[in-house]
Design a protein that fits this description.
Order of helices and strands: EEEHEHEHH
Shape: elongated
CATH topology: Double Stranded RNA Binding Domain
Number of helices: 4
CATH architecture: 2-Layer Sandwich
Helix content: 25-40%
Number of strands: 5
CATH class: Alpha Beta
Number of domains: 1
Radius of gyration: 27 Å
Structural class: alpha+beta
Strand content: 15-25%
């Protein structure tokens, strides 16, 4: 069971874990033990997530979310299987918590008179600078 927030907890049966051998250097230990973890979580099949969180997760441009709607997290930083599993669960929690954050709505405002005049002044100054760069006429 993974607690995301006060209202959302993901049951353990919705999270699939697969232990594999880690990549990279590590000697004989890495060749014998499966310490890395692949964590799979199906967004669409989840009953624990509200609809708005599912929708936002599926719209998120994250390399860990596949086109089929599954979150795939690989953790192999540690030589301990349990540590890698905890890291992967924390990453899953962070991905879901990031989708739960609601952005503030932007209130459209009009530009002030001062900002308009400053913009036009800089625009005319840049035009003058470009005009001075041209070739001299009538020599």
């Amino acid at each position: 069971m993974l607690k995301i927030s006060n209202r959302i907890t993901i049951p353990a049966h919705e999270i699939e874990q697969q232990f594999i051998r880690s990549q990279g250097a590590g000697g004989q230990h890495v060749n014998k033990t499966s310490t890395a973890v692949h964590l799979f979580f199906d967004i669409r099949a989840s009953t624990a997530l509200p609809a708005y969180v599912k929708h936002k997760l599926l719209q998120t441009a994250d390399h860990r979310i596949s086109a089929s709607g599954k979150i795939i997290i690989k953790s192999q930083a540690s030589r301990s299987q349990d540590s890698n599993r905890q890291t992967a669960l924390e990453q899953l929690s962070q991905v879901i918590q990031a989708a739960m954050v609601q952005e503030k709505r932007r209130i459209a405002t009009k530009p002030t008179k001062g900002s308009k005049t400053r913009r036009l002044d800089t625009k005319s100054q840049k035009g003058q600078t470009k005009k001075l760069r041209s070739k001299v006429q009538g020599i």
